[in-house]
Design brief:
Shape: globular
CATH superfamily: Jelly Rolls
Number of strands: 9
Largest sheet: 5 strands, antiparallel
CATH topology: Jelly Rolls
Number of domains: 1
Strand content: 25-35%
Helix content: 25-40%
Radius of gyration: 18 Å
Strand order of the largest sheet: 2-3-8-5-6
CATH architecture: Sandwich
CATH class: Mainly Beta
Order of helices and strands: EEEEEEEHEEHH
Length: 160
Amino acid sequence: MSDNCPVCQTKLNTKQPTGNADVSTYAYDCPRCGKFFFQENEPGTSMFVLREGRVAILKCWGERSHLVRYLKSGDCFGEMALLDLYPRSASVLAVDRSIAIEIPADSLHQLYQQDLEQFALIFMNIGRELSRRLRDADSRLFEQAMAGKITRPADLPSAI
């Protein structure tokens, strides 16, 4: 993790305590931007379900952070790191006062050992959410391509 905010490059305050074992509030505090649950490229060992508030998903490109989307109460984030074991693909910034339930990978492994049916249900729902987001991303890319805002790959025919 960088010591600087990915949005404004201000030095971050130290990691904040996150409350009890099941509920996480903020992880990093930027004096100018607000509070981060986590930052892009950090190792990911848990996912979150937003209980209340609103968060911004941010990706860095060059020296700037760019808004990908907002998530609201009931949405989840951080699940990709549990599935693909790669570092965090984006930063998550609390836009409003936000509280999220943190689900560590260890807890999911325990659930797998104790209740395979519930474990399968959770992962099916994570898969559905990722599929929904992929469909949304495909639609947005298609719309951008049709509007001429992005170029098509050279080997892709313009019409079938």
